[in-house]
Amino acid sequence: MKAVIILSGGVDSTTLLYDIIDDFDEVLALTFNYNQKHSKEIEFAKRTCQKLGIEQKIIDLPILGEIAPSSLTRENIEVPEGHYEDENMKQTVVPNRNMVMLSLATSYAIGKKAHYLFYGAHAGDHTIYPDCRKEFVDAMKGAIKLSDWTEIRLRTPFIKMNKGDIVELGKELGVDYSLTWTCYKGEKKACGKCGSCIERLEAFKQAKMEDTIEYD
């Protein structure tokens, strides 16, 4: 059996990769470069794939950054600081990003004759990211299943878990979180102030685990 995973280089998808790697004969990683400010996450995804011996495909998708305005893709929109539940965090939404990525990932999976497609949507994303909701996932499962004569099964094992739960799982799996990047600002060190950083710090605190990346 073969699986494809959308691997961003962040905590969620990296933990998911560790979680499924022994369940399949082959796991392939797919990473997207959509001109995100935190594109350094791609380098971290590369390092994880090298460490685990995983084949990785990187797809350049600059058009998504061009047509989908977001603080993650536009220089004239500053990445907001604060907790994920704050209203200003909606500025980090890249409209319809997951549908676009899942569509391309499905094509890749079909071409590779894979049986499963994984992505790391989790409960902590539901507040501001509509394309991480269970309703969206269920709709995409049906569409992907019908998209080709070869059936591809979409799986989101973390859909009911928060990031703390995910890091706790990663602790058990021995995930090397020094090879992950979370901060939306994409600078030399993590800012510790954007919603993504704050959620990460809370998750490591919940898991009683030291976060070994550098913060500004």
Characterize the structure shown.
The protein is an alpha/beta fold. The protein has a single domain (2-206), classed as Rossmann fold. Helix content is 37%, strand content 12%. A five-stranded parallel beta sheet has the order 3-2-1-4-5, sandwiched between helices. Strand 1 (2-6), helix 1 and strand 2 form a beta-alpha-beta unit.
Search tags:
single chain; 216 residues; alpha/beta; Rossmann fold; 5-stranded parallel beta sheet; 5 strands; 12% strand
Tally of strands: 5
The CATH H-level superfamily is HUPs
**Amino-to-carboxy terminus distance:** 43 Å
> Uncertain runs with pLDDT below 50, 5 residues or more?
none
The helix-and-strand class reads: alpha/beta
Mean pLDDT over all positions: 92
Estimated helix fraction: 25-40%
In brief:
With 216 residues, the chain is of the alpha/beta class.
SSE topology:
Layout: E1 2-6, H1 11-20, E2 26-33, H2 40-52, E3 55-60, H3 62-67, H4 97-111, E4 116-118, H5 134-146, E5 153-155, H6 163-173, H7 195-206
Helix pairs in contact: 1-6, 6-7
